[in-house]
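Feature request, filed as a ticket because there's no other form

It would be nice if the structure record came with a short human-readable summary line next to the tokens. Right now we just get the raw output. Example of a typical job, pasted below so the devs can see what we mean:
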Amino acid sequence: MDGPPPDFEMLRFIARAYPDSLAGWREVLRRKLLDVSVDPISEVPYDAEASLRILPDVRFGWGVIGASVNRRTRQAVAQDNDDFFMIVNLDDSFSVSQRGHDFMLRAGDANVFPCAEEALYVRPQSGRILCVRMPRKALAPLVPALEDKVATVVRRENETLQLLTRYVRSLDHTQRLPTPALREAVARHICDLAALALGASREGAEIANDRSLNAARLRAVKEFIAANLSRRDLNVATLASRHRMTERHIQRLFEAEGVTFTSFLLERRLYKAFTSLNDVRNSDRGISEIALECGFGDISYFNRAFRRRFGATPSDVRRAKRN
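Raw output as currently delivered:
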């Protein structure tokens, strides 16, 4: 397989951009993620769209694939290594055959298999999927009887699986992972979350929790905050209920980074307001309207906080932009 790009950026693939979309998709899979025989089961021309990240030890991606039979052949597995591959189905249901067992993956369910074994996946209609390729050495010390997890289903009700899915998808907004430390942390978090979803031992769970679970939880909380800055009820209690944690746990997640929840939320709201005031598309909107959209109910407080943070009033920033 191809190595990672020099800057570890997110790779994008659209099958219909190739003269032969199916051949292009097969080649991308073979070179970047997993050698799979793909056979369409629809009269509609095959199409697929995917985002993919390649790290030194972990590869992951997500996207939409067409209705198809996807087969790991004997020839393909004979040339592969001992990595493990996790598939998370994000749409509808499709069938899986592994080690002589047939079963279904519902939307949200996941399945794992060794890259050195044959497998068959049949998706009767186009749908979304998420995949992670991980080294056995990262999972085996944490998950007892790892081989027994093959040909089984990790149910969508598994909270750690849900967290893993959100964590990987959130990386779509992170265009580059510039430092070795950051790339190592992302790979470790993914493997640890996968181990917890599969069923880590007590000692393995303690290790994975300490290293990765809280980091993934904090990232999920921050993603929710970023998407809901306008909400007046965006507080610790709301986040605790939403993410099934105690309020104190939420506070500790932020304190571990040297900030408080309140200061983080204020910074995000002020930054959004600053960005909006500098956007020419908002030139006809009032400052109070923008402040309310960013979650500020008290305009006087907004003005004071804005000036403390940026050394200028919102009106100053808007005038400077116009000039």
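Something like this underneath would help us a lot:
The mean pLDDT is 92.
Residues 119 and 311 are 61 Å apart (CA to CA).
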